[in-house]
Structures are given as structure tokens and as C-alpha cells.
Amino acid sequence: MPPLNRSKSFEEEYVNEYFLKQRVVGDPAPIGLFAFGTTQLIYSLYLIQIANVTNEQVGLGSALFYGGLIQVISGMFLLYSGKTLGATIFCSYGGFWISFGFVHLPSSGIIDSFKDDQLMFRNAIGIYLAVWAIFSFLMIIASLRTTVLEILCLTCVFIVFIFLVIASFTGLTVCYRIGGCFGVIGTICAWYIGMAHLLTKDVSYFILPLFPINHPPIADSESSRNV
């Protein structure tokens, strides 16, 4: 046993260190994936107008709290786990859902401020969605060395944003429906990846493949700069 450090209490010297070593953090990815996929599915079905639902207010709770807050929290835990890409994706899309929900929240008054100019509102939403389409494209590039399912999921999200941008600027309602269909596909991918993270060898009788993409390693940036 190492000598006791008299400048620290016994609890600071040994007990806290023991619990820090024993602390185990679970995989936060499934939480973020299901939060992302579930909220996306709700709004995708609204876009397709399943059961003739055109009022999207019921989905605001999911957008603000499950797809928004919970996804951001899971992203922060991913950052704590050292997974920067996943943390960036979850925190960013969680922020998107919070902002989307806030814009459509009646008490925010944002939509009411455009009641005299609906064309300006559609253009403003189009710009807002176009920026998120660009972000989604950047995330696709960042994910090219991950798995086929992750790339497919992000690609579907990118396509959804593209069709929503077109619909916002042109008013073509068919683009909303097409975007909703790709949103459903993206949800299936997100749920599949989430289940693949949950169905591990210690808790499941089978596992789901994620089809990782194997590439030759890239030279270290420091060494490449020295060439």
C-alpha cells in the first residue's frame, strides 16, 4: 500500500480514486439513435400525410424533448467516451430538433410574425433547411470510413432536407411526400444501428451486422506535413 499523502484526506486519496476506476459508462449511442429515428419517423409520417394529418403540433413534444434534449444528452456522453463524430452528429441534430420545435411552438410567436407574408416564411424556412442540408452533407463526408448503415442513414437525412428545401422554395407538395418517404428509410437505418448497438453478445442470442467499411489507413497528419 503506498504511503498516505497527508495533504489529502483518506477519502480524497483512496476512496474517490477507487470509485473513479470502478465507474463504467454504458453505450449512449442507442439512446441517441432511437431519439433521432423516432422523432424523424413522426414528422416523416406527417409529411406523407398518413391518416390525413396536417397539423404537426402533436409532434412538438417529441421534437423538443426526445429528439432534441435526450439526443443532445446522449451526444455529450459520446463526447465523454471520446467519440467525437457521434457526439457532433447527435448534439447537432438534437439542436436541430430543439430549434425546429421552438420555431413551430405557438407561444414562440415566430410563425405568427410571418402571418402577413407567407412567401417570406417559406423562404426563411427554406434557407434554414438548406443550411442543415449542407451540414448533413459534411457529416456524410466525415462518416465515409464508418459503416454502410451510418452512411445510408445520413444520406437519407440529406435527401430529406434537399426535398424540403425544394418544397419550401417552390411550394411543390409532392416534394414533402418524397422527403417523408426518405425520412422513413432513414429511421429504419437509425433503428437498425441502434438495435445493433443493443444486441451485444452478452445480452442477445444474435447480433446485427453493421457492414463496416475497411479502408487502408491514412498517413498521420503530422508525418504528412513533414514530407
Automatic annotation (TrEMBL):
The domain of life for this entry's organism is: Eukaryota
Task: Please report the name of this protein according to its UniProt entry.
Answer: 5502_t:CDS:1
Locations listed in the record: Membrane
Residue ranges of the TM segments:
31-51, 63-80, 87-105, 125-144, 151-170, 176-199
- Topology class, membrane: Multi-pass membrane protein
Name the predominant localization.
membrane
- Report the source organism: Cetraspora pellucida
User: In the record, what lineage is assigned to the organism producing the protein?
Assistant: Eukaryota, Fungi, Fungi incertae sedis, Mucoromycota, Glomeromycotina
Sorted keywords for this record are:
Membrane, Transmembrane, Transmembrane helix
Query: What sections of the sequence does the record tag as coiled-coil?
Result: none
Q: Answer yes or no on keyword Cell cycle.
A: no
An example GO CC term for this entry is: plasma membrane
Q: Which family does it belong to?
A: Belongs to the acetate uptake transporter (AceTr) (TC 2.A.96) family.
Any one GO MF annotation of this record:
acetate transmembrane transporter activity
